Amino acid sequence: MADDLQLALKTLIIETLDLNDLRPEDIGDDEPLFGSGLDLDSLDGLELVLQLEKTYGIKIGSSEASKEVLKSVNVLAAYIQKEIAGRV
Length: 88
Known about the structure:
about 90 residues; mainly alpha; about 0% strand
């Protein structure tokens, strides 16, 4: 299931941010989403947080929290799994 979630997250990142020159396999699971990785900026982060909250029914919270959660696809997937498991 984790691999499915990571693939879904990569697809969501590409579609939400119109990164149409990328494919999901181009994004490494541990690749930084900001800075030297995908080089996303704060506006990209905000768009992504809003879409993630809508898609997965989670709350990411403050900008500091979102920076931590959006470090990489693996970190993001772990956070979403934890949040979803907490609802059960």
